[in-house]
Write a structure and sequence with these properties.
Layout: H1 2-8, E1 24-30, E2 33-34, E3 42-50, E4 63-67, E5 73-76, E6 86-96, E7 98-99, E8 107-108, E9 112-113, E10 118-119, E11 123-124, E12 138-141, E13 147-151
Parallel strand pairs: 1-13
Antiparallel strand pairs: 1-2, 1-5, 3-4, 3-6, 6-11, 6-12, 7-8, 9-10
């Protein structure tokens, strides 16, 4: 019983496992080219938030995150549970944790390592244009179609 309670609060913050039932897979690109990933200085994250309608925030238990691999692919899962079907507003963040030369403190920024992706106060190279709260990227996940390909140059698909 304790194990069940412990995993119930995990939401979608755990790592995706290959071939996990109920997971959502896809690819993130910009004009057909994967966004650059170079850990730990550059990372790409997708965030699926259940679309509750205009101006309404998704319940934290209905928000799922995944790190995007170098080839642009991702696999989204939810602590061993299926991602429920429905409409999702999708955030894409292209994090940079590097301070350019010529600034006061050049070099990598101090960052915290999460359990499976880099977290911290980096710069979003997409300038929060695709923040999950206001992203123009909205997709329907169904029981049959669990693949979501996103090209940020064509957010409506």
């Amino acid at each position: 019983m304790l194990l069940c309670l412990g995993s119930a609060g995990c939401g979608g913050t755990g790592p995706a496992r290959e071939g996990q039932a109920g997971s959502v897979t896809g690819k993130v690109t910009n004009a057909g080219v994967p966004l650059e990933v170079n850990a730990p200085l550059l990372s790409v994250e997708v965030v699926f938030a259940k679309d509750e309608g205009a101006g309404k925030q998704a319940d934290p238990k209905d928000v799922y995150r995944a790190r995007v691999k170098e080839d642009g692919t991702f696999q989204l899962s939810s602590a061993g549970k299926a991602i429920p079907p429905g409409k999702y507003r999708i955030g894409v963040r292209h994090w940079s944790f590097f301070v350019p030369m010529g600034s006061i403190t050049p070099g990598p920024r101090p960052v915290k390592k999460g359990p499976w992706f880099v977290e911290g106060k980096g710069d979003d190279l997409l300038k929060a244009k695709f923040d999950e709260a206001s992203s123009p990227i909205v997709r329907e996940i169904t029981e049959k179609d669990r693949t979501v390909d996103i090209d940020v140059s064509k957010p409506q698909g």
